[in-house]
Amino acid sequence: QLKLEDYKDRLKKGEALNQDQLEAVEKYDEVVHNLEFAKELHKTFSGLSQDLLKAQKKAQRRESLLKLEAEKKKLRTILQVQYVLQNFTQEHVQKDFKGGVNGAIYLPSKELDYLIRFAKLTCPERNENL
């Protein structure tokens, strides 16, 4: 654009220009228009790029939150199962299931023993002092 402006100024001062320079001066308005169009296009693409980056970051955050919630749900389920299993190691709970009393269903001793062994294998012992 600067070169074209220089040709235009030289032509106004009456200097002789070669054929290529004259054609370039004739196309000055077209070149300026194309440059403005290119600037607008660049601005539009930059805006779209920024919007896309924002949308990607938002989707990543949403995905991270969903994964975190899924992990919390798994952990909650594990802790609930451990709590239930640990209750089978308590004497009064075992008596209730052996007799089918206090809201507990009747469990044969063999099945209750399986649950107690499973509870001991899967549930770490807690230090009540901590």
From TrEMBL:
One of the record's GO cellular component terms: cytoplasm
Domain named Caprin-1 dimerization: residues: 61-129
Single GO MF descriptor: signaling receptor binding
Gene Ontology biological process terms from the UniProt entry: positive regulation of canonical Wnt signaling pathway
Matches recorded under PANTHER family: CAPRIN-2, GPI-ANCHORED PROTEIN P137
InterPro entries given in the database record: Caprin (IPR028816), Caprin-1_dimer (IPR041637)
Organismal lineage: Eukaryota, Metazoa, Chordata, Craniata, Vertebrata
Similarity field: Belongs to the caprin family.
Cross-referenced Pfam families: Caprin-1_dimer
Superkingdom of origin: Eukaryota
Protein name: CAPR2 protein
